[in-house]
Amino acid sequence: MGSTGVRAGGGAEAASLSGQALDLSVVIPCFNEMRRLPTSVAGVARWLLERGRPFEIILVDDGSSDGTGALLQQLAREYPQVRAKTLPRNRGKGRASAEGVDISRGSLVLLFDADASMPIEELPKLEGAIAAGADIAIASRAVLGAREIDQPFHRRLLGKAFNRLVRVTLLPGLRDTQCGFKLFRGEAARYLFSQLEIDRFAFDVEILLRARRSGRRVSEVGVRWLNSDASSVSPLRDGGRMVWDLARLRVGSVGRS
Questions:
Q1: C-alpha angle with apex 149: 58 to 234, nearest 5 degrees?
Q2: Which of 29, 116, 124, 252 reaches 20 to 30 Å from 147, CA-CA?
Q3: How far is residue 160's CA from residue 175's CA, in Å, rounded to a whole number?
Q4: Who's near 104: CB < 8 A, 6+ residues apart?
Q5: In the chain, helix, strand, coil percent, each to 5?
Q6: What is the per-residue pLDDT for 7?
Q7: DSSP three-state, residue 31
Q8: For residues 3 and 53, which has the higher predicted lDDT (pLDDT)?
Q9: In what helix (H) or strand (E) does residue 126 lie, and over which residues does it extend?
């Protein structure tokens, strides 16, 4: 199950740890995030505490080499709501996300990128879609209401090309599957991620494909997205693997169990 670090607190903090049903689990996969993670966790915790609802933040270290694992333990000591888990080697963002979802307890589960490209303040938009009947609400840079800020042209172009390929081959109607800001009903998240086979960046596509095949409703919601210069996604290194994973999903060699 990995290591966890939790201490008791008062008010909303105590509610997060008292065994009561949690309103929200925020799962943050982390790989070499020493620089950005403290600011991101502080911002998420502060905003959620101000709302006054029980929550937890689950940080999963994906075999980092820069000391992120030790940082997670420090953050777990500093924040009553933080739980930390460390993978012994790098498995990929999908696997780290699945490991975090597996130990989540919230009635809702939010996948959140460590760079906070999608501000936590956008969460009510996704919650509104869940309240309207969706099982999964995904943030999007390509539908009405979306705003991309400081996204380099080449990344925007490659992202649009990848999402068009996804739309044509696997998920018609969804315009942006890759935003790292997705809200699930807790039951749906824990079921879908327990089936996950793709460990790296195309895992989003597999999860959404499984959701559709199981009859779960997916809603796409426009959000404000801020570019992070230190993105860990390399178009050259990761792009080919992502296309290969799409091909595997298309022919059914994964994603059918």
A1: 65
A2: 29
A3: 8
A4: 25, 27, 56, 58, 186, 189, 190
A5: 40, 20, 40
A6: 33
A7: coil
A8: 53
A9: helix 123-131
Q: CA-based angle 18:127:178, to the nearest 5?
A: 110
Tens digits of per-residue pLDDT, 73-91?
999 999 999 999 999 999 9
Q: What is the mean pLDDT of residues 175-204?
A: 96
pTM of the model: 0.86
Q: Which two tokens stand for residue 8?
A: 């008791």
pLDDT tens track for 14-30? 444 445 679 999 999 99
Encode burial over 197-218: b for 16+ CB neighbours within 10 A, e otherwise.
bbbbbbbbbbbbbbbbeeebbb
In angstroms, how far is CA 255 from the centroid of its own chain? 19
Q: What is the CA radius of gyration of the chain?
A: 17
Place of tokens 């290969």: 244
Separation of first and last alpha carbons in the chain: 24
The confidence score (pLDDT) of residue 3 equals: 39
Q: Return left, alpha or beta for 38; rule: phi > 0 is left, psi -120 to 50 is alpha, else beta.
A: alpha
Question: Would you state the structure tokens that stand for residue 69, as one six-digit string?
Answer: 């694992």
> Residue 152: is its pLDDT beyond 60?
yes
- Residue 148, amino acid: E
Give the strand pairing for 82-87 and 147-149: unpaired
In the chain, DSSP assigns E strands to 22-30, 55-62, 82-87, 106-112, 136-140, 147-149, 181-185, 218-222, 224-226
Identity at 128, one-letter amino acid code: G
